[in-house]
Amino acid sequence: MSPTHQHPLLTVTDEVATALAEGRPVVALESTIISHGMPYPANVEMAVEVEGIVRSLGATPATIAVLDGRPRIGLAPDDLELLASHADVMKVSVRDLPYVVARGVHGATTVASTMRLAALAGIRVFVTGGLGGVHRGAETSFDVSADLTELGTTDVAVVCAGVKSILDIGLTLEMLETLGVPVVGYGSDEFPSFFSRASGHRAPMRVDTPADVAAMMRAKWGLGLDGGVVVANPIPVEDEIPADEIGLIIDRALADMDALGISGKDATPYLLGRIVELTDGASLIANIALVRNNARLGAAIAREFAGWPV
Ligand code: PSU
Ligand code: MN
């Protein structure tokens, strides 16, 4: 796809547009993790560092957000700083995109909306930290992240470290199966739980090389099977927080959330912030380590996949 064929509502940087036009590897990155997933200034340092990792491994990073109502594919350092430090950046899932675009305001995109915008721009590989999913208690709250339904329809492979046990991991995996989304453990038989390599749940499939992930992507989309692929990449052993240790913290954060009556789109940002407080920042260090690890894998997958017609 040449830059002149870019979607009229998107603003794509020259760097990203040229890479896409030349069939070179591009990796999408989300912005809710910056604005609502980590405290300042660790968030902007992480965002800059991750772009650097992707570049150093021969791929072009494309951090995605909505600025002044314009969906942006690829951001400048000043944009990352704004997203990291301004209090008035909305958390934007797919349902919020029309509002922020029409109103001309800033929005940080979640996994779901980043996938959608990446796909519109022709990007097929996306790196993040953790997916949203089925929240614990969803049988009464109906709180199921739009990340899952987006994975059911949009052709982007998402590299993540699994899902946190703030969610119901078993129900999240069931729903991904229903939606037809392949979930692969990368180099692991077990599905990881973000801070920990273990979750108590088997990964539905296992893949051991970036080339094999790229082959699955070609097979899926070549067969007309629309939708995403989840590449669940366990946090490195040296960075993990044992599941029993983080489990107690997560239970406490969930109880605090219920006591405060927080729900809906505020649930995930509250829990992430509370876990950082309750671990004295240890969870933040682990979070950054797993994003780095995902960036390395995502760049390698993008290199293997590059050149496939989008
Ligand atoms: N999980 C994390 N860190 C995050 C998120 C989830 O460990 O930053 C963010 C992602 O942007 C994800 C979103 O797409 O939260 C899910 O929010 P919700 O549950 O409201 O759909
Ligand atoms: Mn939700």
Structural classification: alpha/beta
Quote the distance from N terminus to C terminus. Answer: 8 Å
The protein's oligomeric status is: single chain
Order of helices and strands: EHEHHEEHEHEHEHHEHEEHEHHH
Into how many domains do the coordinates divide?
2
Helix content: 40-55%
Number of helices: 13
CATH classification, class level of the largest domain: Alpha Beta
CATH topology of the largest domain, which one?
Answer: Indigoidine synthase fold
Low-confidence stretches: none
CATH superfamily of the largest domain: Indigoidine synthase domain
Residue-averaged pLDDT, rounded?
A: 96
Strand-helix topology:
Elements: E1 11-12, H1 14-21, E2 26-29, H2 32-35, H3 42-56, E3 60-67, E4 70-73, H4 77-85, E5 90-92, H5 97-103, E6 107-109, H6 111-121, E7 125-127, H7 138-141, H8 146-153, E8 157-160, H9 169-178, E9 183-186, E10 205-207, H10 210-222, E11 229-232, H11 243-260, H12 267-278, H13 282-305
Parallel strand pairs: 1-4, 2-3, 2-7, 5-6, 7-8, 8-11, 9-10, 9-11
Antiparallel strand pairs: 3-4, 3-6
Helix pairs in contact: 3-4, 3-13, 6-8, 10-13, 11-12
Bound molecules: pseudouridine-5'-monophosphate and manganese (II) ion (MN).
